[in-house]
Specification:
Elements (H helix, E strand, L loop, with lengths): L5 H13 L2 H8 L3 H15 L4 E4 L2 E4 L1 H28 L4 E7 L4 H12 L6 E7 L4 H6 L5 E5 L7 E9 L1 E6 L19 E4 L5 H8 L3 E5 L3 H9 L5 E4 H6 L5 E5 L6 E8 L5 H21 L1
Parallel strand pairs: 3-4, 3-5, 8-9
Antiparallel strand pairs: 1-2, 5-12, 6-12, 7-10, 7-11
Helix pairs in contact: 1-2, 1-4, 5-10
């Protein structure tokens, strides 16, 4: 059995992401020769080549590609262990609950109040996160529990559905499609749709189909501005439309669009103790809201 040090995995991941030893060394705050020696030593111990170095290019080998995913999992787990241990051992122990800005704000308030009323419960900190960040924050320990909209990268994460809502088309005022009371997916085919960078193919398909990938955005505010300026149309959750009434954007239902589902998520295998009770609190309160809305 070959033992791999965490330091070696960090070195390997930097080179794998940069595909350039000089840039990876600079990023790691070290010179290139020791980095090259460390990678070469790791390859010798593993008995495989991790990188092809030819014609001044660096490319991952099949073995290197396999190690990338494993390195991500291990390094996330190491980071998570350190962060969660520090929070648990702090003078005032805490858990972190994360969600996107404006997502289920009332639910978050009620969760903090209800959970805080449990005898001995640790403090709950709310971390507002950006689009697509929540699952990564669970994996690397920046958060213990998250409210996430599907689809998302589910590796290393367990989750339970909370609620589902339809999506509507967001159109610039004056767009020809605003003359219709309702639309279908076919009506949006081929139109540019905004998307966030770093999406998986599955996530990109969800947010840009049936249109085509359009302008790159970072958050919902940029999405709305992009639509208002006539650069794209959006297929968005109805709750986002309700939070953004505007004279320069028109919303139309799209009954055959895949719905938007919100789930509560936590790190795989960590579902006992106070994390489990926080998850149960979220599920119970979300169920109460759903019953009131029905």
């Amino acid at each position: 059995m070959v033992d791999i040090e965490v330091r070696e995995l960090r070195y390997f991941r930097a080179v794998a992401q940069e595909l350039n030893f000089s840039r990876a060394a600079q990023r790691l705050g070290m010179s290139q020769p020791p980095l090259s020696r460390a990678i070469a030593q790791l390859e010798r111990r593993l008995g495989v080549r991790l990188f092809d170095r030819a014609d001044r290019r660096v490319e991952l080998t099949p073995a290197g590609i396999a190690l990338v995913e494993e390195a991500d999992r291990v390094l996330d787990a190491v980071s998570a262990a350190g962060r969660r241990t520090r929070r648990a051992g702090a003078e005032v122990p805490s858990l972190v609950l994360t969600a996107k800005a404006s997502v289920a704000t009332d639910l978050l308030r009620r969760v903090v109040t209800a959970y805080g009323a449990l005898p001995g419960a640790p403090e709950v900190q709310i971390a507002i996160s950006g689009f697509g960040e929540q699952a990564a924050m669970i994996r690397d320990g920046r958060a213990d529990v998250a409210l996430i909209g599907t689809p998302f990268d589910r590796h290393g994460v367990e989750y339970e559905p909370l609620f589902s809502e339809p999506r509507v088309a967001a159109l610039p005022a004056g767009h020809p499609l605003t003359g219709r009371a309702a639309l279908s997916r076919a009506d949006l085919e081929g139109l540019p749709m905004p998307y966030c960078p770093g999406l998986s193919s599955k996530e990109l398909a969800y947010w840009s189909e049936p249109g085509i990938p359009g302008p790159v955005i970072r958050d919902s505010s940029q999405l709305m501005e992009t639509v208002a300026l006539g650069q794209a149309v959006g297929l968005i959750p109805v709750s986002l439309a309700e939070r953004n009434p505007r004279s320069d954007v028109v919303y139309r239902p799209v009954p055959d669009a895949r719905p938007y589902e919100t789930v509560v998520a936590w790190r795989e295998g960590i579902h006992q103790g106070w994390v489990g009770r926080l998850v149960r609190t979220v599920v119970e309160l979300a169920g109460q809201e759903a019953r009131r809305a029905a």
